[in-house]
């Protein structure tokens, strides 16, 4: 943890650990940070995105209850030295039919978080439409819920909370 925060490599290792060792429900899927980045960049037809949004088998997203995305927001994008950033989670909550944004530091009251999350969600809607256009399950009209999480810890704990949300989120009960 350089400077008291999780590096991207540590977050990826944490996600891999959760996927392999933590007993998460089979109706939940955690997308890799690579998929999140491709969607963020608008690369909806990339091979990895097509594979993640495949319309067959157990990984078909329309059969899931929760599709989780690891979000990384650069807080100083124009500073070449200080690459300070913030982790949070976006979830397609197919059970309740909404987008859940889980961030222990902000509850949607922060304009930079809102604009960051909403830009990703717009790209996610386009990705979904491109890959599931004929499906009965559509996410275009899902509202965004900024989930009120417990505000605790320091500003450097966001990576830990991200991993906790990915492992434990059940759509309504906050992880403890």
| CATH superfamily descriptor | Adenoviral Proteinase, Chain A
CATH architecture level-2 label: 3-Layer(aba) Sandwich
Strands of the biggest beta sheet: in what spatial order?
A: 1-2-3-4-5
**Roughly how many Å apart are the termini?**
23 Å
The CATH class turns out to be Alpha Beta
The fraction of residues assigned to DSSP E strands is 15-25%
Count of domains = 1
Helix/strand-derived class? alpha/beta
How would you state the average pLDDT, rounded?
79
SSE series: HEHHEEEHEH
Q: Roughly how much helix do the residues carry, as a percent range?
A: 25-40%
Please identify the oligomeric state. single chain
Number of helices: 5
List unreliable stretches of 5+ residues.
Answer: none
Q: In this structure, how is the largest beta sheet organized? A: 5 strands, mixed
List how many beta strands DSSP finds: 5
Give me some keywords for this one:
single chain; 176 residues; alpha/beta; Adenoviral Proteinase, Chain; five-stranded mixed sheet; 5 helices; 5 strands; globular
What does the model show?
The chain is α/β, with parallel strands linked by helices. The chain has a single domain (2-168), classed as Adenoviral Proteinase, Chain A (Adenoviral Proteinase, Chain). The protein is built from five helices and five strands, in the order H-E-H-H-E-E-E-H-E-H. The chain has helices at 8-21, 33-40, 47-52, 111-131, 158-168, and strands spanning 28-30, 66-74, 85-93, 98-102, 144-147. It has a five-stranded mixed β-sheet with strand order 1-2-3-4-5, sandwiched between helices. Strand 4, helix 4 and strand 5 form a beta-alpha-beta unit. The mean pLDDT is 79.
């Amino acid at each position: 943890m350089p400077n008291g925060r999780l590096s991207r490599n540590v977050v990826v290792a944490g996600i891999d650990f959760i996927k392999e060792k933590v007993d998460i429900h089979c109706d939940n899927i955690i997308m890799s940070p690579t998929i999140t980045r491709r969607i963020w960049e608008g690369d909806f037809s990339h091979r990895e995105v097509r594979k993640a949004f495949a319309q067959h088998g157990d990984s078909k997203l329309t059969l899931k209850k929760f599709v989780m995305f690891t979000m990384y927001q650069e807080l100083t994008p124009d500073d070449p030295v200080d690459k300070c950033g913030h982790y949070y989670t976006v979830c397609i909550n197919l059970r309740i039919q909404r987008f859940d944004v889980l961030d222990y530091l902000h509850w949607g009251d922060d304009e930079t978080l809102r604009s960051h999350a909403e830009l990703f969600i717009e790209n996610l809607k386009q990705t979904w439409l491109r890959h599931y256009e004929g499906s009965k399950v559509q996410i275009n009209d899902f509202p965004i819920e900024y989930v009120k999480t417990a505000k605790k810890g320091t500003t450097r704990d966001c990576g830990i909370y991200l991993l906790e949300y990915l492992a434990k989120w059940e759509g309504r009960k906050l992880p403890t």
